[in-house]
TrEMBL record:
InterPro entries: DsrEFH-like, Sulphur_relay_TusB/DsrH. It holds the Pfam family DsrH. Signal peptide: none annotated. The gene is tusB. This is Sulfurtransferase complex subunit TusB. It comes from Aeromonas schubertii.
Length: 92
């Protein structure tokens, strides 16, 4: 299952809950304020080994660079959804 995390890990527990409930191998996409997790040392160890994608447009909008994960465009997100089916969204 594809997981979408939209909230900053410093403002909500969405990413923490996602990581606790995902099945091994399930990809996670960080978008909106969720991209902050891929840019901070605090979350790097927790995200290692997770198939992780980070929406490039949201990184750019916030002036950030990802330290972890593969940057994808909106088209890449559409491709992931087509490949994995309806995603599970995490966010408040």
């Amino acid at each position: 299952m594809l997981h979408l995390v939209m909230s900053s890990p410093f403002a909500s527990r969405s990413l923490e809950q996602c990581l606790a409930h995902r099945t091994a191998g399930d990809p996670v996409v960080l978008l909106q304020d969720g991209v902050i997790a891929a840019c901070t040392q605090t979350w790097l160890s927790r995200l290692q080994g997770v198939p992780l994608y980070v929406l490039q447009e949201d990184l750019q909008a916030r002036g950030l660079s990802a330290l972890e994960g593969q940057s994808i465009s909106m088209g890449g997100l559409v491709d992931l959804i087509a490949e994995h089916g309806s995603p599970l969204s995490w966010g408040e």
